[in-house]
Amino acid sequence: MKRNFGELIRAARKQKRYSQRELAKLIGLDFTYLSKLENDRADYAPKEEVIRSLARQLDLDEEELIFLAGRVPRREEDLLKANYKSMPTLFRRMRENPNFARQVLAATELLEPSEEE
After folding, report:
1. pLDDT digits (tens, 9 = 90+) for 17-28
2. pLDDT tens digit string along 28-40?
3. pTM of this prediction exceeds 0.90
4. Is residue 26 exposed (0-12), middle (13-18) or buried (19+ Cβ within 10 Å)?
5. Is residue 78 a part of any domain in this protein?
């Protein structure tokens, strides 16, 4: 089942049996902001540090949670900046051509294990 950022953190919080107030206190957030995040009512995506804190506290993958929140991890920004002229075309091609998008994503899955070696 595909979830959005808010649903994922809410489900993980409940699985850990934290109240919103407890989790918010653990990561240094106002519980009302955490509630807005869980309900996708925040005016903006949380900062990377907040997302990483949530991920660590809830045993979620930090990088995946950052992308799910609509952010790009800082360490990926250099790659985007170095290739900024190609990015709009890449994303447009992926959006317009689902087969191309599947090929790109499949290639990343094939590359990941060898990168870790």
Report:
1. 999 999 999 999
2. 999 999 999 999 9
3. no
4. middle
5. no
